[in-house]
């Protein structure tokens, strides 16, 4: 089955280049899509079997995981140059002053450093990139070198040498093949050709070999501090050097290997091939010590003669472990709250009261329980609480308790030790409580936590200490808990699905986040905000404004944002009822149990009651009630019968008889505000009646 690969890079052009390399190597076995941070396409990142991320794309793992799933298969893209480019640069005269131009400071430094490692060290490099103030022009340099970034070359360049885009290293492509389960491709002609064309870091081996002849003790020290296995052989293939890492990887003792033919002790390392060819061999995957090992072999040349060779061995498990450790460090740096109370939009009394209360709560160190319907903005409030608290400088960690199975949630919260369960990461993993030390832990949808985990959480709140899964060591943590729920936790306590003692621990400082239907004009304030963010200008027809104003908004702000996003794609300047999303189901507020019915404002300029059939005067309150029901039906583009009006009156306990309804409808018809149909046609507002109701800014 075809696998999907997502290439994520800083610059779109670089990402497209890497993507084409992957397509060339893997052919029709993969579907490759590139995304860029700079052009914003990364925000539309789709699910993939493998995410290949360039090292310059994100500053932290926290930024990365805004777009890439935390459980996705992620690997870094390492880049190098083609041997053809390296040899071309090596032929330049020593002392040549070269200006290296690239996309950023970091990329320029990485490229120059790589060229130095590959043996291009006779040039006098200086760097230039967008935003760099010096040099102002390139006239003072013998040569300008750039990897296809001529657009950034400063004025005055005597000669420009375009060395082409940096390419993915052979080890990067090898790792991608292994992660995609396409090991067989590693022996294909296209992979062999790629590995032969791509430059590997052999210069360090040459330097190491030369230094060993003069300073043997320093060489031995260097061998041991390397985080990869290293084996050195003479021109006859005899092992003269190896480090403990090789012993660990191959399970072959260094004492047994030294001064023996490499083919006898390391038959999986192609030393003979390298010594004959007198050139570096492309990286290849071999089986050694019961594991997959990446092997790179490079000759040591002196005066055109091969005087030995070095092999570098790296276990894929070790590489992954180091990557995970690095991610953990970066993750800790990226754990920060993004929002403050200034990001809470709204001027309604309901939302302002909540903001003022929660602000005062934030100054304490006590647990806060945010209560509100789905989509009301509880997570935004949690971020704001952290940033307004004395813990603002510490980490902010968020997790959705209902989104994970019990066993996974436990290991995520409390961490686990090496070998705690099948598939556990080597060396274990710290939990979110450890990451949140001296900061805030936000538990969203806390009602989704199992009874067993509730017990453990209660212990953490009481004792401020945790124990990793499969561990026996107590770890002290200092964490402020902010929890959120969209359910009635007290009811859950009564039915036994939520612990009473934990409920009262979390409910120390309860805060209610009001639903959108209780926030009055905030609805259109938020609508304008989302419209501006969409970058599309449109207006709402009076009918649509009425529908939105009287809608229940069970999905609250999240539902409103989705509706606005849909409006932005209709292509219409004026939004009519027919432009509402096909999934939008109008639910008038009176259908929501306990909700107040929006009334026609007292300021509405309605005509005075006229004398109609029946009594000379109609009760004003009953008249306004009927008008409200007709207006709500008009917003739904529907007619309303007398029985429906009576049902609404009974639901709201409004005293109204069938005879009064008939009289009021007749009076409204006589005034030209309503049109009463015969039979089951019901009653509708006329344009005049609709306008009269809307004058109150409904």
Describe the structure.
The chain is an alpha/beta fold. The protein folds into 6 domains: 3-78 and 169-188, Rossmann fold (3-Layer(aba) Sandwich), CATH 3.40.50; 83-165, Rossmann fold; 212-317, Beta-Lactamase (2-Layer Sandwich), CATH 3.30.450.20; 335-512, 3-Layer(aba) Sandwich (Rossmann fold); 516-588, Orthogonal Bundle (Helicase, Ruva Protein, domain 3), CATH 1.10.8.60; 620-694, Winged helix-like DNA-binding domain superfamily/Winged helix DNA-binding domain (Arc Repressor Mutant, subunit A), CATH 1.10.10. Helices cover 38% and strands 18% of the residues. The chain is built from 27 helices and 26 strands. The strands form 8 sheets. The chain has a 5-stranded antiparallel beta sheet with strand order 12-11-15-14-13, with helices on both faces. The chain has a 5-stranded parallel beta sheet with strand order 17-18-21-16-22. A hairpin with a 6-residue loop joins strand 25 and strand 26 (683-685). The longest helix is centred in the middle third of the chain and has 19 residues, at 316-334. Residues 202-215, 323-333 and 591-618 have low confidence and may be disordered.
């Amino acid at each position: 089955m075809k696998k999907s690969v997502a290439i994520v890079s800083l610059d779109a052009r670089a990402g497209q280049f890497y993507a084409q390399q992957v397509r060339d190597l893997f052919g029709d076995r993969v579907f490759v899509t590139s995304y860029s941070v700079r052009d914003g396409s990364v925000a539309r990142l789709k699910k993939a079997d493998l995410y290949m991320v360039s090292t310059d794309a994100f500053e932290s793992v926290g930024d990365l995981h805004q777009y890439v799933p935390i459980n996705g298969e992620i690997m870094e893209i390492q880049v190098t140059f083609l041997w053809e480019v390296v040899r071309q640069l090596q032929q330049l005269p020593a002392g040549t002053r070269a200006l290296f131009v690239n996309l950023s400071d970091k990329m320029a430094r990485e490229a120059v450093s790589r060229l130095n490692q590959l043996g291009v060290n006779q040039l006098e490099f200086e760097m230039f990139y967008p935003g760099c103030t010096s040099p102002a022009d390139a006239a003072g340099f013998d040569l300008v070198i750039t990897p296809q970034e001529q657009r950034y070359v400063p004025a005055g360049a005597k000669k420009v040498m375009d060395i082409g885009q940096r390419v993915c290293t052979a080890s990067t492509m090898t790792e991608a093949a292994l992660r995609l389960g396409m090991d067989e491709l590693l022996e294909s002609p296209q992979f062999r050709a790629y590995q032969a064309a791509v430059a590997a870091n052999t210069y360090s081996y040459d330097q190491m070999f030369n230094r060993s002849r003069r300073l043997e003790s320093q060489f031995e020290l260097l061998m041991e501090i390397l985080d990869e296995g290293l084996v050195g052989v003479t021109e006859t293939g005899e092992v003269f050097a190896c480090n403990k890492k090789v012993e660990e990887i191959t399970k072959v003792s260094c004492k047994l290997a030294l001064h023996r033919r490499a083919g006898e002790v390391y038959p999986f390392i192609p030393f003979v091939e390298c010594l004959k060819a007198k050139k570096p061999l492309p990286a290849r995957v071999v089986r050694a010590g019961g594991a997959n090992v990446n092997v790179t072999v490079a000759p040591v040349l002196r005066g055109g003669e091969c005087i030995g060779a070095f092999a570098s061995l790296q276990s894929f498990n070790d590489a992954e472990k180091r990557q995970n450790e690095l991610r953990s460090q970066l993750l800790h740096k990226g754990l920060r709250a993004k929002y403050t109370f200034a990001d809470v939009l709204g001027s309604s009394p309901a939302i302002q009261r909540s903001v003022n209360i929660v602000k005062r709560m934030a100054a304490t160190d006590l647990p806060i329980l945010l209560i509100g319907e789905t989509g009301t903005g509880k997570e935004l409030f949690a971020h704001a609480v952290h940033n307004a608290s004395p813990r603002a400088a510490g980490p902010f960690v968020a997790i959705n308790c209902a989104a994970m199975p019990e066993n996974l949630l436990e290991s995520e919260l409390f961490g686990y030790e090496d070998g705690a369960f099948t598939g556990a990461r080597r060396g274990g993993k710290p939990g979110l409580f450890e990451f949140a030390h001296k900061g805030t832990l936000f538990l969203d949808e806390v009602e989704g936590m199992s009874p067993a985990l509730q017990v453990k959480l209660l212990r953490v709140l009481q004792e401020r200490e945790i124990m990793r899964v499969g561990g026996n060591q107590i770890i002290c943590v200092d964490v402020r808990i902010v929890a959120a729920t969209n359910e009635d936790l007290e009811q859950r306590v009564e039915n036994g699905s939520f612990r009473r003692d934990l409920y009262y621990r979390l409910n120390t400082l309860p805060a209610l986040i009001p639903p959108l239907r209780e926030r009055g004009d905030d609805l259109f304030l938020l609508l304008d905000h989302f419209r501006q963010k969409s970058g599309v200008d449109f207006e709402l027809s009076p009918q649509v404004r009425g529908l939105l104003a009287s809608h229940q908004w069970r999905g609250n702000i999240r539902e409103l944002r989705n509706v606005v996003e849909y409006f932005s794609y209709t292509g219409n300047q004026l939004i009519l009822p027919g432009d509402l999303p096909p999934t939008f189901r109008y639910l008038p507020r009176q259908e929501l149990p306990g909700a107040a019915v929006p009334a026609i404002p007292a300021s509405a300029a309605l005509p005075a009651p006229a004398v109609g059939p029946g009594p000379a005067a109609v009760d004003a309150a009953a008249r306004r009630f009927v008008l409200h029901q007709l207006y709500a039906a008009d917003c739904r583009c529907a007619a309303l019968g007398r029985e429906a009006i009576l049902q609404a009156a009974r639901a709201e306990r409004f005293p109204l008889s069938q005879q009064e309804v008939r009289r009021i409808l007749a009076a409204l018809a006589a005034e030209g505000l309503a049109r009463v149909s015969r039979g089951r046609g019901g009653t509708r507002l006329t344009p005049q009646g609709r306008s009269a109701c809307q004058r109150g800014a409904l």
